[in-house]
């Protein structure tokens, strides 16, 4: 079973996405902000995919994935942004930081699961 880490400052998003992923057979880890998520990664937790928001208080999603990419176990892990942002400049900035893909909220369960199947190994 693959483990997916969800990082979002919205409790509603964490709950709804977690429910979709759990029903689809994934193990889910959650963090309410980037600092909490980073601490989980630094603890050595095995994660197969990260799904993160872009706009969060404190450390934003781009800063967060740059930090995650510095950790040896997560250099090549797929990372998806799930965000309300849709500007091409933000997408390019995220790709340069190490993001594998981008979904705009609200994404349907089918869109989310289809994208996950494309990036997760």
Beta-strand content bin:
15-25%
Q: Low-confidence spans: pLDDT under 50, at least 5 residues?
A: none
How many alpha or pi helices? 5
Strand count: 5
Integer-rounded radius of gyration: 13 Å
**Helix share of residues?**
40-55%
- The topology string of helices and strands comes to EHEHEHEHEH
Placed side by side, the strands forming the largest sheet appear as: 2-1-3-4-5
- What average pLDDT do the residues reach? 94
Q: What can be said about the biggest beta sheet?
A: 5 strands, parallel
Category from helices, strands and their pairing: alpha/beta
Question: N- to C-terminal separation?
Answer: 11 Å
What overall geometry do the principal axes of the alpha carbons give? globular
Report on this structure.
- Strand 3 (49-52), helix 3 (61-69) and strand 4 form a beta-alpha-beta unit.
- With 121 residues, the protein is of the alpha/beta class.
- The protein starts with a strand and ends with a helix.
- The protein is globular.
- The protein contains 5 helices and 5 strands.
- The model has no long low-confidence stretch (mean pLDDT 94).
- It has a 5-stranded parallel beta sheet, sandwiched between helices.
- 28% of the residues are buried.
- It is 43% helix and 19% strand.
Task: Write a concise synopsis of the structure shown.
This protein is of the alpha/beta class and 121 residues long.
Task: Give descriptors for this structure.
121 residues; 5 strands; globular; 5 helices; 19% strand; alpha/beta; 5-stranded parallel β-sheet
């Amino acid at each position: 079973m693959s483990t997916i880490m969800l990082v979002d400052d919205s409790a509603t998003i964490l709950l709804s996405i977690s429910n979709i992923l759990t029903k689809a057979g994934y193990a889910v880890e959650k963090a309410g902000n980037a600092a909490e998520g980073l601490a989980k990664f630094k603890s050595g937790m095995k994660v197969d995919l990260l799904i993160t928001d872009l706009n969060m208080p404190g450390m934003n999603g781009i800063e967060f994935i740059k930090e995650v990419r510095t950790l040896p176990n997560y250099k090549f892990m797929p990372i998806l942004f799930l965000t309300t942002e849709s500007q091409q400049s933000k997408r390019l900035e995220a790709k340069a930081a190490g993001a594998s893909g981008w979904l705009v909220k609200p994404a349907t369960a089918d869109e989310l699961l289809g994208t996950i199947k494309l990036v997760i190994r």
